[in-house]
Amino acid sequence: xxxxxxxxxxxLIEKLSLSLFAGLNILTGETGAGKSIILDALDCxxxxxxxxxMIRTGSERALIHAYFSLTPLLEEWxxxxxxxxxxxxxxxxxxxxxxxRSKVNGVAVNKQQMQxxxxxxxxxxxxxxxxxxxxxxxxxxxxxxxGGEKLLQTKESVRQLFSAWDKTNRILQERRQREETRLQQIxxxxxxxxxxxxxxxxxxxxxxxxxxxxxRLSFVVDLQQQSYELYQILYQNDDNPACIDLLGQAExxxxxxxxxxxxxxxxxxxxxxxxxxxxxAGRQINSYGSxxxxxxxxxxxxxxxxxxxxxxxxxxxxxxxxxxxxxxxIRQQLSGLTEDEQPIEVxxxxxxKEEELLLNKAKELTSLRQQSSKFLExxxxxxxxxxxxxxxxxxxxxxxxxxxxxxxxxxxxLFSPNPGEPLQPLTEIASGGEMSRFLLxxxxxxxxxxxxxxxxxxxxxxxxxxxxxQSIAHQLYLxxxxxxxxxxxxxxxxxxxADHHFHVAKQVNxxxxxxxxxxxxxxxxxxxLDAEARKHELAQxxxxxxxxxxxxxxxxxxxxxxxxxxxxxxxxxxxQANLLxxx
Length: 583
Fold this sequence. Notes:
This protein is α+β, with helices and mostly antiparallel strands. It is 55% helix and 21% strand. The strands form four sheets. Strands 2-1-4-5-6-7 form a six-stranded antiparallel β-sheet, covered by helices on one side. Strands 8-12-13-3-14-15 form a six-stranded mixed β-sheet, with helices on both faces. The protein has a three-stranded antiparallel β-sheet with strand order 9-10-11. Strand 14 (500-513) and strand 15 form a beta hairpin. The two termini are 25 Å apart.
């Protein structure tokens, strides 16, 4: 139960302390008085969205404390989070221009912790929740919570089975992908090896040798002619003396000279050696020239082979020695692509078994949801009938879907407020007043199964007639017998049925700036109304004001005093509320 709310420098609130009680707590006040600001502060204290605009002008920070009475569930939560258990559970939110911090019993907590705690504390319901109500996943969540412990346990089993199935499925998909890649690599390596084997790579110098042979074959005629000319110069020439003839003459002369001077013998030996070398060179060049032949076929074969080797080098090189070394590397890679993981067939069989378990448990969950939906339909129709919607139709539509972590069901609330009209999704057909009653009936149904101790309703009775407002008032009162209820309302009959009534107002005060200037500042105040004050408040809500009888409150603007007839009407509202409480 929310015991107290303390607010400092939040929006238009300078400082406010609100003590709440068990039962039905009602907040009233003129439109724009700041009632929703108080609820916004409560939302922020429990982890709601904040921004720097929420800080009161001229202040550096806003501070909100929400005090809750302890329950066994809250004590267990505090133990699990290793937070000290005190007399009350205190949720604190500090908002600055740069950041905000949440604390529980003085210990800093993150957004996820705050959200999990909030589920045990309170829920704020407003007519503007139409968009949220239309979400299928939220409707399914509500249905599951309404279904009770057995359904929630089955749902948890489905979640566990789905997680196991999903994990195996992801592993299988990864294995299939790896297997596909492995087979592609094997095909590629086998093709490469075949190409390299067919190329017959053995000699790393083959390209240089073939290139040399190609050049020789390309210029064979020139080489024949030049070798013949060289042979003539060295060994035999019909027109002029050959080199060997001249060396022979030189040898003869030197031989005669050595008979006179033996010191010339080394020169003679050099001439004799040169003569022998030239003679050998002549014979070899003659042999070379005689062996030269034109061979176009061989030349074409060499050029084809060179093209093949250069293509191999571009793909596996860049050089021929590197391409030859790559053959060994490819063989090693190919031998490494062996089946060393769990066979795909084993994973497929495992997935099949897990899917069967998942579908069977999901089927069980669907059955429990169908049972829960029938009971919810009856409860909702009963609740809506008590809210002056006697001919309403309500149905929980459950349709099959592919397996998810929440089972195999899509849940949608269908609604028809008028006889003869077909059932349609709630958000497509309900008016504002109908949505208000639907929200209240829905929360009433779910309140019994929820751990929440406090329910907050923000103007869910807007736009409804007096008779409908009376039904809403009675429903709120019944709900407040089991839960603490805090309700903002503009309906006098709803306000009249309250156990505790608070009035919210804006108050304009003058404040001094820098010791001289003064300015007006707006502040939101809240007061607990006693029996007499309640009569005047109800009379004002109902519109019965006597402007000729002003009453000066302790601070702020002149407050108008209700006329005797308006007070009498307020008393009749209170009597009517007492009759509603006795139903």
